[in-house]
């Protein structure tokens, strides 16, 4: 790794062999912060975002799990912003490793308003989570035999408990 640039309080290190960029914790956020759309700008539709991201995101070859260049631990892979399609290599303590073209794709995602759309997506996913189990009947009360609640309990058991 060699230092290839600095700005906005960020020192960019680049692998001289493969061209990957190393950013310490917080540096990626600092670089993309200036690319955010103006406040109140409406986010794109999911279809618009996907079309634009296909244009800027480089196709990924074979999936490789890499060792962190700082601590040597295997890095985890995650989709930046949940829906961007840009899969980055991340090490919790030291930072992130971006393949050539990924920083530009992340900047485009942020410029398009992708983070706002990603937040809408996350809220929708949370809303679709498995419901909590029905409340248990009080131990001293009559069982709910033959009631709608009893049928709902049985259905919940079949669907979610496998009973």
Q: Using DSSP, what is the number of strands? A: 6
What gap, in angstroms, lies between the N and C termini? 56 Å
Helical segment tally?
5
Biggest sheet statistics: 6 strands, antiparallel
Structural class: alpha+beta
Question: Could you explain how this protein is built, in words?
Answer:
There is one protein chain. The chain has a 6-stranded antiparallel sheet with strand order 1-2-3-6-5-4. The chain folds into 2 domains: about 1-125, no CATH class; about 135-163, no CATH class. Strand 4 and strand 5 form a beta hairpin. It has about 160 residues and is of the alpha+beta class. The protein starts with a strand and ends with a helix. It is built from 5 helices and 6 strands. Helix 1 crosses helix 3 (about 100-110) and helix 2 (about 45-55) runs antiparallel to helix 3. It is about 35% helix and about 15% strand. The chain has helices spanning about 25-35, 45-55, 100-110, 115-125, 150-160; strands spanning about 1-5, 10-15, 20-25, 75-80, 85-90, 95-100.
Observed structural traits:
alpha+beta; 2 domains; 34% helix; six-stranded antiparallel sheet
What's the quick description here?
By secondary structure, the chain is of the alpha+beta class.
List strands and helices in order, with pairings.
Blueprint: E1 2-7, E2 10-14, E3 21-24, H1 27-33, H2 46-56, E4 76-79, E5 87-91, E6 95-98, H3 102-111, H4 114-127, H5 148-161
Antiparallel strand pairs: 1-2, 2-3, 3-6, 4-5, 5-6
